[in-house]
Automatic annotation (TrEMBL):
<feature type="domain" description="HTH tetR-type">
    <location>
        <begin position="1"/>
        <end position="54"/>
    </location>
</feature>
<dbReference type="InterPro" id="IPR036271">
    <property type="entry name" value="Tet_transcr_reg_TetR-rel_C_sf"/>
</dbReference>
<protein>
    <submittedName>
        <fullName>Helix-turn-helix transcriptional regulator</fullName>
    </submittedName>
</protein>
<dbReference type="InterPro" id="IPR050109">
    <property type="entry name" value="HTH-type_TetR-like_transc_reg"/>
</dbReference>
<keyword id="KW-0678">Repressor</keyword>
<dbReference type="Pfam" id="PF13977">
    <property type="entry name" value="TetR_C_6"/>
</dbReference>
<dbReference type="InterPro" id="IPR009057">
    <property type="entry name" value="Homeodomain-like_sf"/>
</dbReference>
<feature type="DNA-binding region" description="H-T-H motif">
    <location>
        <begin position="17"/>
        <end position="36"/>
    </location>
</feature>
<dbReference type="InterPro" id="IPR039538">
    <property type="entry name" value="BetI_C"/>
</dbReference>
<keyword id="KW-0804">Transcription</keyword>
<keyword id="KW-0805">Transcription regulation</keyword>
<keyword id="KW-0238">DNA-binding</keyword>
<dbReference type="InterPro" id="IPR001647">
    <property type="entry name" value="HTH_TetR"/>
</dbReference>
<dbReference type="Pfam" id="PF00440">
    <property type="entry name" value="TetR_N"/>
</dbReference>
Length: 186
């Protein structure tokens, strides 16, 4: 697993071979199939584990109260961690984009990613807004889904055009403006 994670960082999802993983793990080539069934299953597992770790990192501290502020400060703080990670974790984010393309051809990858997205939706709603998954008739899922869409879109912008991608403050400002417009009906 550690060798596969290292290969994802260094070579990406699409360019990693079984031999690369075995060499990175200092293990016989056959151990990949023995333990995981295939290189793809190992890479999928490594990517999902790495994405879960990334999600925890960017969400960490979201629930910490900021004196004199509420959910807005938690959201902006999370967006600042995401924007920072767009630079520090770029190889992982590129590998995740490659994995999304693999999902089109693999029902297993698609299902694993879909399950991870669903877990993240409810975690984001709980961490950032204190909305639990079973509460409020699907509101947690809706709120988490909006954050997931923003994370995906922000990541794409940072991967393609980091010089002009929005900052955390710009994301928060945009969200506040959209929320006001939705509340006022304009």
């Amino acid at each position: 697993m550690a060798g596969a994670k290292r290969c994802l960082q260094e070579r990406g999802f699409a360019r990693t071979t079984s031999r690369d993983i075995a060499a990175a793990a200092n293990a016989p080539l056959g151990t990949i199939n023995y333990h995981y069934g295939s290189k793809e299953r190992l890479l999928n597992a490594a990517l999902l584990e790495t994405l879960d770790e990334w999600s925890e990192k960017v969400r960490s501290g979201s629930a910490e109260p900021v004196p004199g502020s509420g959910a807005g400060a938690r959201v902006e703080s999370m967006w600042a961690r995401i924007v920072e990670s767009e630079t520090t974790d770029r190889p992982l984010l590129v590998a995740s984009a490659e994995a999304l393309a693999q999902a089109e051809r693999s029902a297993e990858v698609r299902q694993q990613l879909a399950d991870a997205f669903e877990r993240s939706r409810t975690a984001l709603a709980a961490d950032l807004h204190g909305i639990e998954g079973a509460e409020e008739g699907g509101v947690a899922r809706a709120v988490g889904s909006v954050h997931m869409a923003l994370i995906a879109g922000l990541t794409q912008q940072w991967l393609v055009d980091p010089e002009r991608a929005p900052s955390a403050r710009e994301v928060a400002t945009g969200l506040r403006r959209i929320a006001r417009a939705l509340e006022s009906g304009s």
